[in-house]
Task: inverse folding
């Protein structure tokens, strides 16, 4: 039976090299802007040859940038998932999503640098068809977390409302409300967002049985 030439150690080494080059590209973009970054810049950041870069990313700079975007999106969602997964109720979930997402994006070094040097590249993701794609992706990620307390359809709509709020703030920050400040966000969420989300929903996770049905199987009727 033929065996793969790729051993676990070689695969891990390749993945580590790939991640180093991605992080190097992000640093270079933050320093000079995406349009000015060269393969030599990226190679120099990790002290490797151009050949190593092309072996890892045969598509060159564009392939690295695409991988960097994919990696950063994964990191963003991973950070959000950890925080949102700890929420004890719907209000805490929304506050967590708003504050963590806002803080992550507003303090992202590469994203901030691109907004200054090449704002058209950033804003293009938030206009017309690209906005629809961004909304759909973010809402699809958040929907399962909202579904702990809301019915599926309502969970999807609520997730999209929160995503729209965050994107709106990122494109046009308000001086009246700092979305990174949990103490400021919580009353806003409780007063303006939660009432429209809950309606006939429950304050307890939907998948948890109620206390009445857990009492030795007694009927509640």
Result:
């Amino acid at each position: 039976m033929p065996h793969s030439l790729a051993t676990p150690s070689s695969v891990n080494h390749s993945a580590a090299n790939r991640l180093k080059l991605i992080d190097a590209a992000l640093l270079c973009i933050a320093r000079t802007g995406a349009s000015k970054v060269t393969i030599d810049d990226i190679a120099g950041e990790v002290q490797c040859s151009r050949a190593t870069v092309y072996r890892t990313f045969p598509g060159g700079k564009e392939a690295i940038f695409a991988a960097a975007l994919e990696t950063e999106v994964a990191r963003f969602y991973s950070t959000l998932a950890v925080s949102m997964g700890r929420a004890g109720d719907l209000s805490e979930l929304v506050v967590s999503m708003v504050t963590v997402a806002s803080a992550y994006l507003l303090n992202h070094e590469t994203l901030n640098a691109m907004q200054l040097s090449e704002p058209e590249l950033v804003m293009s993701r938030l206009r017309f068809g690209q906005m629809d794609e961004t909304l759909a992706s973010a809402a699809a990620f958040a929907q399962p977390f909202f579904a702990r307390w809301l019915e599926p359809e309502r969970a999807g709509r609520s997730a999209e409302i929160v995503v729209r709020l965050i994107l709106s703030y990122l494109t046009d920050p308000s001086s009246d409300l700092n979305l990174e400040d949990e103490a400021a966000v919580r009353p806003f969420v409780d007063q303006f967002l939660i009432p429209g989300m809950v309606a006939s929903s429950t304050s307890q996770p939907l998948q948890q049985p109620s206390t009445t049905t857990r009492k030795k199987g007694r009927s509640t009727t």
The mean pLDDT is 85.
